[in-house]
Amino acid sequence: MANSYPKTRIRRVVHRFGLVPLSSNTVASFYRKNAVIRVQTKSEAYAVKPFFRSLSLHSSTVDQMKTTANYIQLLMDNGFSCMPKWLTCTSGKLWTLHKGRPYYVTPWIKGRKLENQEDYEKLGQALASLHITSSHFLSKKAPFYDHIELWKSHDRLFRRQMMKAYQTDIKIRRWYKKFGKSCNRFSDRSWAELKRPEIVNLLRKERIRPVLIHNDITSYNVIISDDGQLFIIDWDRIKVGSMYIDIAAALTNTTQFNPVFIYSFLKGYEELHPLNQTERKWIASLYRLPREAWHATRFPNRPRSRNERNMLEIMEQTWLLRLKAMDFLEEWTHH
């Protein structure tokens, strides 16, 4: 794919943040080929991030950018340090609009990906810090993003597609036959646990005192800098929501279903924010949900992207590891 961001556009954007670029190049993410622009200046490198709206929200791109920037400003003002600092442009905002697209700029974090137990412990601590910090300044009137209802709709669609499996391509049909019923059993168990009075009460309390969630913590979005500090990047999807969903999704997307890494993550989290048995049970239930399968089969009539095909292949390759990870979390709920 050609570079979507001409040099002239990049120069105009970064000039608004007081930067003079010497060179620039686009860097791919898991989802986009031109996800971020790395700009080199005389002093250091910066990440120039084009902002794309979330399709799950009905608000405009600019409105979503405003909301995101407001949350980021609150986190910076309250001392949250596990993200790159957003630069302020000449207008005084944390973002700028150019040709209808919002952009924001942060220092480029040079470092490595998650590798060892200490890294995962730091990640758990960073996520706990995000939840604790934001709980102090969010009001109970903050708009709460309901992942549960969204995930239930994805589950229903997945089940309908299973019924039509013989009309799909042979690889999808084979995958459904091998793993589909197990996915449904996992979901049924988690939805049943959601109805337990202690879980219902827990979720009710969470809405009274909400937190900010990153909403997209993956291995790609966590960097250990050269000096050993952990940074979470790509905050485009930050929302007011459930910290338990944020924990469960981060465990799924980063720990490689490795009980050692899962334990280190949870140990780090609980060093700052201890969890009671009901909270642990709900996290284990959320982790059990087969969200990757739901996502990969959401659009049955659309040609499968490589990422969607990869999701099902990865689920098949890691199936036994996932089962062991679920067993580990089940044991963790009783400790």
UniProtKB/TrEMBL annotation:
It comes from the Bacteria. Residues 34-270 form the Aminoglycoside phosphotransferase domain. Pfam families: APH (PF01636). Gene3D superfamilies: 3.90.1200.10, Phosphorylase Kinase, domain 1 (3.30.200.20). Transmembrane segments: none annotated. PANTHER family: COTS-RELATED PROTEIN, SPORE COAT PROTEIN I. This is Aminoglycoside phosphotransferase family protein. It comes from Paenibacillus lutimineralis.
